[in-house]
UniProtKB/TrEMBL annotation:
PANTHER family: LYSM DOMAIN-CONTAINING GPI-ANCHORED PROTEIN 2, MEMBRANE-BOUND LYTIC MUREIN TRANSGLYCOSYLASE D. It comes from Peribacillus deserti. This is LysM repeat protein. Pfam families: LysM (PF01476). It comes from the Bacteria.
Amino acid sequence: MISKKGLAASFLATSLLFSGVGAVLSEITTASAAQVSPYQTELNTFAAHYAKIFRTVEGYTKQLDGAKSESQAIKIHDQYMTYFSSALDDDAKFAKYNAEIQNLDEFIYNSLVEMYNFEIDTIDYMNGDLSKADYDKSYNSMTKFVDSQDALFKKAAASYKAKYKITFSNDMLYLLDGEQQDTIRTVTYTVKKGDNLYRIAIKYKTSVDALKKLNHLKSSSLKIGQKLKVPVTSNPAATPASYKVKKGDTLYSISKTARLSVAELKKLNNLKSDSIYVGQVLKFKK
């Protein structure tokens, strides 16, 4: 397992811990001349660094969601892992910045490392090398830690803004989970087998903490069939009631459109094998 910041970290696989909306970047002027405050500059550089990482993650999660086969998904996932290996290697990037920036850096970096540890546990669990009880324990530990770091990050950011009279850039607002939004638009999500708050947060580009607050959840436990409100920046495409098989389709690729597992898709359509044919109509809903 990877330790907290200060020890070696080979790579990170993360969720969209902080995602939100943007704002116009503002400059601060001094009495002597129009120039950007060094405190503003350091915060902007810090925010741009982490926002780039999270936006790249978004790109990989979209690619994974659109994978047409298991082999393609594995290839994308390998690229995803490699990206984070290089992105998080330089854990001393902000060592010469002011103390408050280093503090903000600690909160984000440590959260991401914790998520990496959970990703490793997820792989072990899916390979049968970790029990369900131990996996659930790892998940609860991760979400509790990340929620605490998220709260500390937001508190420290607000303090920095007030102390140095700066403004939050587009990237900083992105990291702050869009707290400056006046209203939050939501859709309803029904929990399926295998779901957890971490995975749902990735899918809808939000955080575990945001989901828990929006749904007044006291813990991270979910039940199959449970209804959750999830914040969205745009309405996701509605899942159609049925689908007509086209050339090149597989049950795996179709399951992505249906937002069902292959097993669920087969059960719903009374399929005894993975064989399908062009023109065949598959039901997505009962």
